[in-house]
Amino acid sequence: MATLIRRIDMKKWPDDGPQYSTILELPAEPITRDMNSRLNTFSLWKFSRDEYLEAGLTIALSLGKEIDTIEIIFLDGDSISDCGLTVENNDGETCYHVMKCHHYDIINMNHDALGKVADLIIKNINDGNFEICMKDELLDLLIQRMDEGIIEKKHLNKSVKKQVEKLLKEIAESEIANKITDAS
After folding, report:
1. How many degrees, rounded to 5, is the angle at CA 8 between CA 42 and CA 18?
2. Most buried residue, 50, 111, 129, 179, by most Cβ within 10 Å?
3. Are 113 and 86 in contact (CB under 8 A)?
């Protein structure tokens, strides 16, 4: 199976190797604050590693709030299956409509499954299998996808629309200033 991607908050995870002898010793913060599940499923997105910005934008738009810098972890699909977890493809909730089909869920999540996924996340953090998608990069990609007609402004939430409008205004003002400078 391909690479599956999840947004995480790196500061909630141990950052210098396993600091526990069993998963039962893992602090509650990563599990309770960063491994949100819904209807006993754990949401992931399938992208190749080199598509991390597309993945970041897809995930950012699925959050339903203003776009900001996000951290994403890469999980090997085979490693997930090797843990005895089941992954199922279903449309994700994002206004980046062409990417909905990239959504997967680990199904039948329970305490044991959360522990297995937490172990995989920690292993991948320690192995450097993560990327940081900067806010400016995500907004630039969003503007590009809007210019291409792939994402429509009408599908964006209010806070993202405001971000886009502000950025487009800044770009227009910068272009005008450049033209004035060039004309001088």
Report:
1. 100
2. 129
3. no
Query: At residue 73, what is the residue type?
Result: I
* Cβ-Cβ contacts under 8 Å for 24 (sequence gap 6 or more): 115
In this prediction, residue 89 carries a pLDDT of 95
Distance of CA 7 to the CA centre of its chain: 4
Question: Distance (Å, rounded) from C-alpha 134 to C-alpha 77?
Answer: 25
157: left (phi over 0), alpha (psi -120 to 50) or beta: beta
DSSP for 57-72, written as a single string: HHHHHHTTS----EEE
Give CA 19 to chain center in angstroms: 26
Q: What is the pLDDT of residues 81-95, one digit of tens each?
A: 999 999 999 999 988
Give the residue from 118, 152, 153 showing the smallest Cα distance to 25.
Answer: 118
Count of CB atoms within 10 A of residue 163's CB?
A: 19
- The SS3 assignment for 133 reads strand
Residue 14 has what pLDDT?
A: 75
Which is nearest to 104 in space by CA: 41, 34, 40, 30? Answer: 41
Q: How many CB atoms lie within 10 A of CB 154?
A: 7
Long-range contact set of residues 105-109: C-beta below 8 Å, sequence gap at least 24: 105/41, 105/42, 105/43, 105/44, 106/41, 106/42, 106/44, 106/80, 107/40, 107/41, 108/40, 109/37, 109/40, 109/41, 109/42
